[in-house]
């Protein structure tokens, strides 16, 4: 290379620190800026040897090689900076042809700097590779998140997330549809106060009692099957949900709630439960109706028809036909055994209600509690001993007939309740919360003068009016003797048929004997006398046994007895009867059988005549 302007340009533009060395003078003829920076000083016109740490001979050998080969490289020559600090250099020598001087261009590669550059490049490459990897991971997670979003949104269950403060972090599509809220309306807001603020019954639902918050506090998954969330339109939906707390590096991050709208299912469940309860109720009712009807059929065996030709029986039959066409409440009065219960059956059978039950309630000698339970029925656990739901007789008699027997004996407290039921036209089972409408006809019977009972203050007037819309009367048998032969024949035939006895006929003398007797027990007594005589006769002659003497020696003959006299005689008779039965009232040999009366009637008479044990227990 010629030492001219080309050389100087090459020197200036060389990327390496480069010097131009006059070898013979050991003088640096020129250098570029990089060389000054490398040696940390300006080098022009300075000797090279102060910067050389290798032996001068090594440098001489190197320069010879450069001059000889034109170019030479060495990595072993040592140099130092101006301040003496060593440099690790690779030296590139180029011989520059010159006419008068031996010039050599020395370029230096700073090996330390190169190492540093390499290390940095390596680090940068490493960082670049890390960034790429991070971008890949980021992309992967974005992908996963997108897929998760797709899955969350495709799920049929409502899913939402809340952070540890209870604020919504995400709400999937199903949840938005079920709740009527957009996710944008909910994200970042406290969800409990928006969708879970009240219980279904309208009570406030404080967040500290909310199971979702509990799942936070107790670090447990909570499952709730019966709760309500509130929609944007203010309507509740019944939900079941699972709340699972979520943790981020061991720190509570919030919870994920997965819920399902079970409104329809709960609705159907309730309908099913109601239907099953209804079926069960009907089953019990039917069972009880059946039981009741069986006993009724047994007890009304003889109520096949009303026998008799007397004007009062004809009148009774006409009234039965008349009243049977209506649903009017009827009051049948008359002495014991005159056919009041038979009349009730006849009205029921002739009415449109005949396919529904005729339900009898005995109102005498029963407590208020018993009557309430019997008529109204009760729910299980309404009181001690109420072990199952029971329908009352008012329910059994729905659309049928309710027979209140011995109605005058109803306890006063119950009269008030019954009057109320009839006025309100509804009642309630004991322990129940719903009312049942009353739709039935009530036929009451009594052997007392109910109007007189009202006068005496023993019977409520309002109830009397309710029950006696259509009053009827069964006359005493002694006031319609023309019926006696018909009735006697009717009972004789019926008994013979029923007990398969040889046929027996009533003689004229028999009829006369029957007509001569006063029949204090009325038709029931006649029925008993005939039945007993038929059994004893066994197809032979009928012989009657009367319990009260027809013609007593002490009788007053033709004298007319006052009502007080009659009652006194009736009382004496009852005491005698109790003496004979030794105080026994019902069953065989009891006072009721001897008198031809129902045991309940005998009990109520003992009570009304105020007969004490001392009076009959003479032993
Ligand atoms: N006219 C009649 N025809 C046929 N049987 C009758 C007649 N009257 C009453 N009987 C019969 O006499 C008996 C007593 O009648 P029932 O029980 O109806 O009287 P009651 O007035 O209701 O008596 P109590 O007040 O004591 O309850 C029954 O067996 C009934 O069938």
Describe the fold and architecture:
With 619 residues, the chain is α+β, with helices and mostly antiparallel strands. The protein folds into 5 domains: 5-115, Beta-Lactamase (2-Layer Sandwich), CATH 3.30.450; 155-261, PAS domain (Beta-Lactamase); 280-474, Rossmann fold (3-Layer(aba) Sandwich), CATH 3.40.50; 476-551, Helicase, Ruva Protein, domain 3 (Orthogonal Bundle); 554-619. The chain is built from 23 helices and 21 strands. A 5-stranded antiparallel β-sheet has the order 2-1-7-6-3, with helices on both faces. Strands 9-8-12-11-10 form a 5-stranded antiparallel β-sheet, with helices on both faces. A hairpin with a 4-residue loop joins strand 8 (158-163) and strand 9 (168-171). Helix 10 packs across helix 11 (340-350) and helix 17 (484-499) crosses helix 19. The model is unreliable at 297-303 and 550-558 (pLDDT under 50). Bound molecules: adenosine-5'-triphosphate (ATP). Residues 302-303, 306-308, 313, 334, 336-342, 445, 447, 474, 487, 490, 523-524, 527, 597-598, 601 line the site of adenosine-5'-triphosphate.
